[in-house]
Write a structure and sequence with these properties.
alpha+beta; Yope Regulator, Chain: A; two-stranded antiparallel sheet
Length: about 150
């Protein structure tokens, strides 16, 4: 069965993975049915919730970037200031500083949630996936170069 690339269709993790493949991003599926694009300084995770015929919620695509390096608790104010700067000057991808871990470090993540309702066509899905990947890379570079956190 041939699929019309201009037809809006429900979004599945399979379609997200196909889109990432078309864009040249290698991804794998982990044990909890999340897609991951591993990176040198951070990993980009995709999950999909809702969107089933029995759900009252539309499909929601979640993208989360997790920095591989955490910052010391002593840097909490510095990290929060940096996160606020990112969030006040950029859209969609939101920077978050997590709670202290047992080793007295703070995780740094960024996330984005996109409601996809009844679906999207392939070109729009590709555009969205490329935007997320480019934004994630820009965030990681910013954390390293400008914010000097990782």
């Amino acid at each position: 069965m041939r699929v019309d690339p201009l037809e809006a269709r429900p979004v599945t993790l399979g379609r997200v993975r196909q889109s990432l493949d078309r864009l040249g991003h290698d991804s794998t599926v982990d044990g909890t049915r999340r897609l991951v694009i591993p990176g040198q300084r951070a990993s980009l995770w995709f999950t999909l919730t809702g969107g089933q015929p029995t759900d009252s919620e539309p499909a929601m695509l979640s993208a989360q970037v997790v920095a591989h390096t955490r910052v010391p608790v002593a840097w909490e104010q510095r990290a929060l200031t940096a996160a606020n700067e990112w969030n006040n000057t950029r859209r969609l991808l939101r920077c978050c500083i997590g709670d202290a871990c047992d080793d007295l470090t703070l995780p740094i993540t960024a996330d984005m949630y996109v409601p996809l309702g009844p679906g999207v066509h392939d070109a729009l899905l590709d555009e969205l996936m490329e935007y997320v990947a480019v934004s994630a890379q820009a965030w990681v570079t910013w954390l390293h170069d400008d914010a000097m956190l990782i």
